[in-house]
Specification:
By secondary structure, the chain is an alpha/beta fold. The protein is 38% helix and 17% strand. The chain folds into two domains: 136 residues, Rossmann fold, CATH 3.40.50; 201 residues, NAD(P)-binding Rossmann-like Domain (Rossmann fold), CATH 3.40.50.720. The protein contains 15 helices and 14 strands.
Length: 357
C-alpha cells in the first residue's frame, strides 16, 4: 500500500510493524524489478527507494532505517553510520565494499553482506573492449571520421594481440575470464595471484609467475584485485619502472590500486605506452566537482590526484571511462537477485555472503 512521499525523491511502502529498508541510488526499473519478486510482502518490509546516493552530504532527514542497500558510489563512513541509529544490516550491491567503514560498522554490531560474483564475464568482456580500443586506436579512428570527416589511416596503426603477452594481476572470478578471452585471441598469458591454482592454470593454458616477472615481460598488464590495504598503490613509481618499456596498463578493478601521479609521470616518460582506465582514484570527487567546490570538504580529498586525473583524461594515449565495466542489463539483474537473497537471509536470521572477517 503506497503511503506517499517522505521527502522529495523517496517513495514509501508500509506494512504493519515492518522492518524499514532503504535502497539508495535506485533507478525506477530496479524498483519495479524488486517489487515484482514479492519478497518485501513476504518479509514484512517497509521499503524506501531513494534515487540519491548515501553519504555525509546526502542523509535523509528521517533515517531510522534498519537495513540499507547501497552501491559503490555511496560512502558509508563513521559520520554516516552515526546518523543511522537503528541500522542493523548493510547490503552492498557490489563485489567491492571498500566504500564502507567496516571497522566502525562492526563496532556498532552492524552486519554487512555483499555480492561475491555477478560480473565475472561482464567485466572481463569490458576489459577486452578497452584492450582492443587501445591496440587498434578505435576511439581515435572514430573521432577522425566523425569530427574531421577524414578517412585517412595516418597515425592509426595498431598492433596484433596474437602472440603478445598479457599479464593478469589477480586470477579470481574476473581475472580467469580475462584469461579465457585472451587465450581465444592467441595471447600468451601469465598471472600473479596470492592463491595460485595449478589445475586452473593447466586447464586454461597460462602460467603463474612472480609480480616482478609479470611486469618485466608483459606487453599488457590488466588489474583484477580488490581494493585492500595490501593492494593500495600496487602500481606505483617502482612497479611502473619495473614494467616492460612501452607496455600498456588496463584497470577495471579499483582506482586506488594505481598511484595516479606516478602513472602520469610514467606515461609522459614513455615508460608506459598507454592506459585504459575504467576507475580512478578520487573518481567520486570528479563526478561531483561542483558540489565539492561549493560545499567544501576539499580537505577530505587529494586535490593533486584530482588534477592528475584531468591530465590523464586529456592524454592522447589514455582512455578513461566512468566506472562502467559492470553496467549490463544481465549483470545488474544478477546484482539485484543476490541483494534480495542477502536481505532475506538477514531477516530470517541466516545471513549469507557476509564480508570476510
Amino acid at each position: 500500500m503506497v503511503l506517499g512521499v517522505r521527502e522529495p525523491r523517496i517513495i514509501a511502502f508500509k506494512l504493519p510493524t515492518a522492518i524499514k529498508i532503504a535502497f539508495f541510488h535506485c533507478e525506477e526499473w530496479e524498483k519495479k524489478y524488486m517489487e515484482s519478486k514479492k519478497l518485501f510482502d513476504e518479509l514484512n518490509l517497509e521499503v524506501f527507494f531513494i534515487s540519491e546516493v548515501l553519504d555525509r552530504r546526502h542523509i535523509p532527514a528521517d533515517a531510522d532505517f534498519d537495513i540499507i542497500s547501497i552501491f559503490v558510489d555511496s560512502e558509508i563512513d563513521k559520520e554516516v553510520l552515526g546518523k543511522l541509529p537503528n541500522l542493523k544490516f548493510i547490503s552492498a550491491r557490489s563485489t567491492g565494499y571498500d566504500h564502507i567503514d567496516i571497522n566502525v560498522a562492526k563496532e556498532k554490531g552492524i552486519q554487512i553482506s555483499y555480492v561475491p560474483t555477478y560480473g565475472e564475464n561482464t567485466v572481463a568482456e569490458y576489459t577486452f573492449a578497452l584492450i582492443l580500443a587501445l591496440s587498434r586506436k578505435i576511439f581515435d579512428s572514430y573521432r577522425r571520421v566523425r569530427e574531421e570527416g577524414s578517412f585517412s589511416q595516418s597515425g592509426l596503426r595498431g598492433f596484433d594481440l596474437k602472440g603478445k603477452t598479457l599479464g593478469v594481476i589477480g586470477a579470481g572470478n574476473i581475472g580467469r575470464n580475462v584469461i579465457r578471452i585472451a587465450r581465444g585471441f592467441g595471447m600468451i598469458v601469465i598471472a600473479n595471484d596470492i592463491n595460485p591454482d595449478g589445475k586452473l592454470a593447466e586447464r586454461l593454458g597460462f602460467e603463474y609467475v612472480s609480480l616482478d616477472r609479470l611486469l618485466k615481460v608483459s606487453d599488457i598488464v590488466s588489474l583484477h584485485v580488490p581494493a585492500i590495504k595490501e593492494t593500495f598503490h600496487l602500481m606505483n613509481s617502482d612497479t611502473f619502472l619495473a614494467m616492460k618499456k612501452g607496455a600498456y596498463l588496463i584497470n577495471t578493478s579499483r582506482g586506488e590500486i594505481v598511484e595516479t601521479q606516478a602513472l602520469v609521470k610514467a606515461l609522459k616518460e614513455g615508460r608506459v605506452g598507454g592506459a585504459a582506465l575504467d576507475v580512478l582514484e578520487e573518481e567520486g570527487a570528479i563526478k561531483d566537482e561542483l558540489d565539492l567546490l561549493i560545499g567544501g570538504h576539499s580537505e577530505e580529498h587529494n586535490l593533486a590526484t584530482i588534477v592528475a586525473n584531468h591530465i590523464l583524461i586529456d592524454m592522447p594515449n589514455v582512455i578513461v571511462t566512468p566506472h562502467n565495466a559492470f553496467n549490463t542489463a544481465e549483470a545488474l539483474q544478477r546484482i539485484l537477485d543476490a541483494t534480495l537473497e542477502n536481505v532475506k537471509g538477514f531477516v530470517k536470521g541466516e545471513p549469507i555472503n557476509t564480508v570476510p572477517e
